[in-house]
Amino acid sequence: MNNIIEVNGLVKEFASKRAINDLSFTVNPGEVFGLLGPNGAGKTTTIRVLNGLLPVTSGEVRIFGENPITTGEMVRSRVGVLTETPALYERLSAHENLLFSGRLAGILETELEQRISEIMKFFDLEDRVKDKCAGFSKGMKQRMALARALLHRPELLYLDEPTSSLDPESAQQVKDLIDKISHEDGQTVFLCTHNLVEAQRLCDRVAVINHGELLALGSMEELAKSLFPGVWVEIEFLHQLTDNMVVSIKDLPGVQQLRPEGSVLHIQVADNAVTSDIVLRLSSINARIMRVTPREVTLEEVYFALQNHQSGAL
Amino acid sequence: MKTRSVWTIARKDLMEVQQNSMAWKPAIIVPFVFFVLIPVVILVLPGIPFFQKPTFSSNVSIEQIRSVLPAEILSLIAGKTDAQIFPFIFLGYLFAPMFLIMPLMLSSIVAAESFAGERERKTLEGLLYSPASDMELFLGKVLAALIPALLVSWSSFVVYTVIINTLGYPLMGEVWFPLNSWWPLIFWITPAIAVLGISVTVLVSSRVNTFMEAYQSGAGLVVLVLGLVVGQATGIIYLNVPVGMLVGLVFWLIDAVLIWFCLKSFKRSQLIGKL
């Protein structure tokens, strides 16, 4: 199947400001794609452009192969959007909110009640269906907004900072739900966030942007490899490090960097095969190893490396 | 255009207005005061001895009133007693333009609630992400403001007619209301005034942030209605059938221009930029 989203050289300017600058990426069916960046990076503007709410200044955007500006109604009928604030009609009940959204989305009257029951059950809100949304907690409102976004079984779900205003417990609930619908149900998700832990857990691929510019694009492994070539290994000893230990391994083939730190040695190696050579060499000089841990680069490290790189370039 | 989407939006807005007492209370109080309380006072109180004291009943000279009345009304009151003339002139003639305050006020309140209120409550962005077209969104919201304004206005007219003719029957001895001049007022000028209230409020709503600001700005149109009231009371204008049709036509033409501006400004790309 073709890409669900194709963005090519997207530029969006407002009167005096370029909000998005030459942004290009694609999103595949069934993928959870993260758009990462600080506040004001252009994430929400990107979602608005992708939904045909804002025209592009230049470049090309295709959603399901269609231009969202000229076929906005068709495109929006196939997507669900969770905005940064839940945007519920708080004077209306959960049921009335869903009836409204379902009818606008074109769900048949004969199917609507059944679908509302299903979705309220899925989001564990079936006991509150007749209650006004004004009385809901923040976490419930966000679940309710997510239920509304998924009511018409969209092919693509946009999530704009889905956990930004939630307490840790509610945020965890919402993340679990997103994880379930994306990885168990195969829903294509476009997630805008500045929460890197959330993105690392949920996303298959990410695009990192700042000031509307794309800094990097790829899976976590690809980004980590491009920014932090090689593999980092941590070796912890039962005693303090000695100069002899460091000297004995620094010239081994494949060892790229050494960072001693108390009883822990951080070593960057070309690949995992080098690790066993290091362990053998250390054993031969009677170093007492407590643990050997290959260390994965976190999205946080990738993200800050990219942001620092951009700041340095400016 | 999907009519289901238009009605869905209109119904939702009406349900929201129903929950906002600040919006619907005037819809009950104003018609009650204008079209129940005032006719009752005018028709019933003069029959109670206390209110027949000279100081109460002779404040307004019938001759003074006659001097500003158009010939058509003068011919209608020919042969009537002084006691019959006052309610006839006040309720049947002078009061007529006051009726227009109601559609204006109601349409402005609901339109302010629907357009500016949606932004104030931060629900507009969600609505803009819906599959409804700009035209469907606009029409749904216009209908939500127009329907209650017309229903309440027309119902009030029916109630007013019944009260005048039943309570006034002992005094007048006939079913005399409505006069012919009321028909264009009710079915031609009233919808035009309601649409005027909506279109002005929509235009104002795009420049303000709250329901109250939008409503107060739109309510400035009451001056227009007061102008008609004063004009009719001083004999400058008489909203008989031809004049009523002409005034209505002018309002409809103004409406057409304003609605054109509204449609131009009611675009997703412009609305989202103001969030």
Task: Write up this protein.
The complex is a heterodimer of chains A (314) and B (275). Chain A has helices spanning 43-50, 72-77, 94-104, 109-122, 138-150, 168-184, 196-202, 220-227, 243-250, 273-284, 299-313, and strands at residues 5-14, 17-27, 32-36, 58-63, 79-82, 156-160, 188-193, 205-210, 213-218, 231-237, 255-261, 264-269, 289-295. By secondary structure, chain A is an alpha/beta fold. Chain A is elongated, with a radius of gyration of 24 Å. Chain A starts with a strand and ends with a helix. The relative contact order of chain A is 0.13. In chain B, 76% of the residues lie in helices and 0% in strands. Chain B has 275 residues and is an all-alpha fold. Classes of the chains: A alpha/beta (314), B mainly alpha (275). The interface between A and B is medium-sized, with 30 and 27 residues.
What would you say about this model in short?
The complex is a heterodimer of chains A (314) and B (275). In chain A, 40% of the residues are buried.
Distance between the termini of chain B: 26 Å
The major beta sheet of chain A can be summarized as: 6 strands, mixed
Strand order of the largest sheet of chain A: 5-6-7-3-8-9
Q: How much strand content do the residues of chain B show?
A: under 5%
Measured as a percent range, the helix fraction of chain B is: over 70%
Quaternary status of these chains? heterodimer
**Main β sheet profile of chain B:** none
Show unreliable segments of chain A: none
Label this structure with key terms.
heterodimer, A: 314 residues, alpha/beta, six-stranded mixed beta sheet, four-stranded antiparallel beta sheet, 11 helices, 38% helix, B: 275 residues, mainly alpha, elongated
Topology diagram in text:
The complex is a heterodimer of chains A (314) and B (275).
Chain A: E1 5-14, E2 17-27, E3 32-36, H1 43-50, E4 58-63, H2 72-77, E5 79-82, H3 94-104, H4 109-122, H5 138-150, E6 156-160, H6 168-184, E7 188-193, H7 196-202, E8 205-210, E9 213-218, H8 220-227, E10 231-237, H9 243-250, E11 255-261, E12 264-269, H10 273-284, E13 289-295, H11 299-313
Parallel strand pairs in A: 3-7, 3-8, 5-6, 6-7
Antiparallel strand pairs in A: 1-2, 1-4, 8-9, 10-12, 10-13, 11-12
Chain B: H1 3-18, H2 21-44, H3 54-57, H4 62-68, H5 71-77, H6 82-94, H7 101-120, H8 124-128, H9 134-167, H10 169-172, H11 182-205, H12 211-218, H13 222-233, H14 241-265, H15 268-273
